[in-house]
Design goal:
The complex is a heterodimer of chains A (164) and B (193). Chain A has 164 residues and is mainly alpha-helical. Chain A has 6 helices and no strands. Chain B is an all-alpha fold. In chain B, helix 8 packs antiparallel against helix 9 (163-190). The longest helix of chain B has 28 residues, at 163-190. The chains are: A mainly alpha (164), B mainly alpha (193).
Chain lengths: 164, 193
């Protein structure tokens, strides 16, 4: 099983926040479902104006409830969903037990989280909305995306030298 | 049908958008045993394009292709919403925010983004360096250092009751408040506002 190839597998890496727990590898058209979930997600981002730089400014200036409502009700929905999955022992469509990896505390959540926050208030977008902004016609955000990739790469390059 | 399009074209309230975003969590878990998180896609792109022998980028990114397809979908969703479901009215921004931003030198409040910043003509100016290059770099570096962004930590992490994600989310907000209330004004002055 590929799970044992530790070096090759992000599951073995506690830094990876969206690891892949599935043993069944989706192929071909089965992968289309992720595009579709992404499309719904992108539509919501635009329709609820979450991609708006102004909405993020309102949030950090405590001048509108909108973004707090969005994030808060998303979390509540997530909590209820995960509790239902756990308590009813709901399986994935491939019959696998659903696995939610444990997040290990590290200094990066404080330092990195703070650095991300600084950037979030400048760009007015976390990574999800960046993609939706580009798709919705703000093509200049491609520059922001390249800069974000550079930031990710530099973190990877100096990972070992940073306090963690 | 026309009525439906008209209704769907209005801006969606938080109590519709939030639960829909929250439902992404069980949708990914049930349909593929996948954990919700967006910033990982940036890592996968690095791993696919410029791994440069760095251990952090040396893994089988093809196994994570679903994550890249998900963000591709997000971009397509943005295209669909803007071109077929766009709100006919201009965005309504809180008056207090408009007043604060006017004081910072922003004059146009008719679009989702301040058009005086977010256009191709500013790329090679100080404004572009601040809002695209520095901002983007901090987002990419910070999310990877933190091990996740708003989706991976604030939504997925807190939803699964993991306290390190709550800590991360609190520091996202601390950074955002500091930038907005203390650093943004001098930085914007510096780049010519």
């Amino acid at each position: 099983m590929t799970k044992n190839k530790k070096n090759m597998d992000p599951i073995a890496d506690p830094h990876c926040v969206a690891p892949n727990s599935s043993q069944t590898q989706d192929k071909g058209l089965a992968l289309l479902k992720y595009v579709i979930i992404g499309i719904v997600f992108g539509i919501v981002f635009v329709k609820a104006e979450i991609i708006s730089w102004f909405r993020i400014q309102e949030m950090f200036r405590l001048q509108s409830f909108h973004m707090y409502g969005v994030i808060g009700s998303a979390i509540v929905t997530g909590i209820i969903s995960i509790q239902l999955i756990k308590r009813l022992n709901i399986k994935s469509i491939h019959g696998e037990t659903i696995n939610i990896p444990t997040k290990v505390f590290k200094k990066g959540q404080v330092i990195g989280g703070f650095i991300f926050g600084l950037g979030w208030a400048i760009t007015g977008a976390c990574p999800g909305p960046l993609f939706a902004q580009i798709g919705s016609g703000y093509t200049v955000i491609l520059v922001t995306l390249v800069a974000a990739l550079a930031g990710t790469w530099v973190y990877g390059k100096f990972e070992k030298q940073l306090p963690n | 049908m026309n009525q439906f399009i008209e209704w769907i074209s209005q801006p969606w309230p938080w109590y519709v958008a939030g639960p829909m975003i929250g439902l992404t969590v069980p949708a990914l878990l049930i349909l593929g045993n996948k954990t919700f998180g967006i910033s990982s896609s940036l890592r996968h792109v690095c791993a696919a394009c410029v791994p440069a022998g760095i251990p952090f980028f040396t893994y089988d990114w093809k196994k994570e292709i679903w994550n890249l397809l998900f963000v591709l979908g997000t971009a397509i969703g943005g295209f669909i919403a803007m071109n077929f479901l766009a709100n006919p009215e201009t965005i309504v921004i809180s008056e207090a925010t408009q007043a604060d931003l006017t004081a910072l030198g922003i004059t146009n409040f008719t679009d989702l983004m301040p058009v005086e910043i977010f256009n191709w003509n500013t790329v090679f100016t100080g404004k572009g360096v601040l809002f695209f290059v520095i901002g983007g770099f901090l987002v990419g570096f910070g999310t990877r250092y933190a091990g996740g962004c708003t989706s991976g930590h604030a939504i997925m992490g807190i939803s699964s009751l993991q306290w390190p994600s709550l800590v991360a989310t609190i520091f996202f907000m601390v950074g955002g408040f500091l930038m907005t209330h203390v650093l943004l004004e001098p930085l914007m002055k510096l780049v010519g506002f």
